[in-house]
């Protein structure tokens, strides 16, 4: 996995999280996944999505410069506070939905939404992170790879069926909203096989203290039948405009989709980024679609990536002498994923590994990663100047400090989703009890 360090710009003093990925220690398939995640993050610029500033690299390492947020994970926030007030839960949920709707409008499905992948800034605003399982879903196509975390995965994913990634994300959002309001998960069991059966049935207890509008929303999103499931785009907030803060909206990007005259006009760096997304494997068809006079999804994605490249150009001078006596200093990437350094072909992803069980029906033992900052261990923060325009030699300084919390969730390098599937405790520290007089929510088609 990658190492995350706190970076401080030598000129602006801006703090960033630098994800350092050792190419030599990772398999080709994992490196391809990192490149796909980088390409996806370039498509997303939203206030509630963790921002990828830029990418530096040398022969051995990738340096992913990410937005630094200091509030940690929403998971830890929930464990500390227990169930949230409806007002606070709605605030978080609105921000999640706003960012997710933006992703879906750009054909991006996250596929691993959970509180561990939702970070908080210093003002307790959401940042969706870890797009390692994300995928582009173009048009009416369906996704096939079963991935995600068992507690948050929808029934059709668990059954190994083809599925709509947007509706899978909607189910996960429903589970997250339940966790925010209740302080526990709607589906839980010590035995993983039993847990998966509970998810497939879709039967869960609806506590009486959940507001009626939230109960209706939960029933609509945690719906076994994907055809009846409420999607993010069709959700309407009944409390909008009632003295509650609205989520921050992204600045509109005016990207002109025009007709390309010839194949020579296609930017090769952007084309490589599109190939790394995984859904444009046929280069000849992709080139044909880009040269088409029609406005299609391929051209929209191409010009979005081209727009980002033009707005964040590389001014790296390849003739600069090594800085700080470093033999191979990192150079700013010119938006090309340089896939040829990793592999000639795109390997297939393994499916359903995250949902495996032992012969006895017990889950494969997994442990949630220990947060060093929580336990007071010291880490090393690095102040690295990556800008070639400094008026003085670039400096690297080391000082003892706490490890940054939450930054490691910014970009995943694991071939599976995070193993942190520890169920959220209820305020009493035990599985969620069924309040007296509270009926279980049972799907209409269930026996």
Entry keywords:
single chain, 447 residues, alpha+beta, Transferase(Phosphotransferase), domain 1, five-stranded antiparallel β-sheet, two-stranded antiparallel sheet, 13 strands, 27% helix, 13% strand
Commentary on this structure:
The protein is of the alpha+beta class and 447 residues long. Among the domains are: 72-235, Transferase(Phosphotransferase), domain 1; 253-316, no CATH class. 27% of the residues lie in helices and 13% in strands. The protein has ten helices and 13 strands. It has helices spanning 28-43, 74-81, 86-105, 155-158, 165-182, 192-201, 212-221, 268-276, 283-291, 297-311, and strands at 3-8, 15-22, 52-57, 61-67, 108-109, 118-120, 126-128, 135-136, 204-205, 331-332, 378-384, 396-402, 440-441. The strands form five sheets. The protein has a five-stranded antiparallel β-sheet with strand order 1-2-4-3-10, with helices on one face. A two-stranded antiparallel ribbon has the order 5-8. A hairpin with a 3-residue loop joins strand 3 (52-57) and strand 4. The longest helix has 20 residues, at 86-105. The protein starts with a strand and ends in a 6-residue tail after the last strand. The model is unreliable at 336-438 (pLDDT under 50). Keywords: ATP-binding, Kinase, Magnesium, Metal-binding, Neurogenesis, Nucleotide-binding, Serine/threonine-protein kinase, Transferase. GO terms for molecular function: ATP binding; metal ion binding; tau-protein kinase activity. Its cofactor is Mg(2+). Residues 1-240 form the Protein kinase domain. Residues 313-353, 406-447 are annotated as: Disordered.
